Sequence to fold (266 residues):
Amino acid sequence: MARRRIRLFNQPHRDNNTADARADEAIVARDRSNLYNQLSLLFLALAFIVLVYVGVTFVLPDHPLNPLPPLASAVVITPLPTLTPTDTPEPTATHRPTNTPMPTATATRTPTAAPSLEPTRTPRPDETIAPGDTPTPEPTSTPTATPAPFAYTAEVIYQRAQLYGANWAGVAGLVFDLNGKYQPNIDVKAWGDAPLGPEGKTLPSGTAPQYGPSGWEFRLGNRPAFGRWQVQLIDANGAPLSDVVEIEMQGDPLGNLAYVIFRQVQ
Fold:
């Protein structure tokens, strides 16, 4: 019984010692935690200061706190050559060439040959001429104008097709009346090699206004053509109004348009 009482008496004393030890350990742990926190804040502040210093040194390497300032290098300034202003002529506008009808040769009067006179006998000085032997001069003929066989004359001009370029070939033109004005509704017939053929095609003037109010056009292909063709003006009954115009092409891109101008002369 005595031992049991002693054990029970000593039990509270041991519990108090354990609680004190735990309290001391908690205080020590808290002090260490505070110390670590303070050291962490100190290192963060130092790191921020170092970053600011490095940034300032990078941006301003010549500031007095930089222990390794850059070496000053001599800068050589080379003067640039001066430009002397000069008067530059302004470009002039270039007019594109247009299909302008060329003047055609007008019909000329062809004089007919006068009949030759037969030689007459010249009397000698000692010869007496009878009244009936006086020679009578023969009448001379007066030259007369020869009319043109057709009412229209034609002129052919080989040139580059300005409306279509080099990848084209054709025969086109205009028709003018006696007063030099455009004359539409005159039938134009063209025939010959392909694609027109021997039968040919007929169309009235004025169907190709890109050349003028009396323009007409026969297309021969999509590239410079080789061959021969004929063009003629005809009336409503198919009778010729002009002579047959001969067209010949040799595949020249600068002459892929045969430009024919018909002019009325009578």
User: Anything to note?
Assistant: The two ends are 170 Å apart (CA to CA). The domain at 152-264 is CATH 2.60.40.1110 (Immunoglobulin-like).
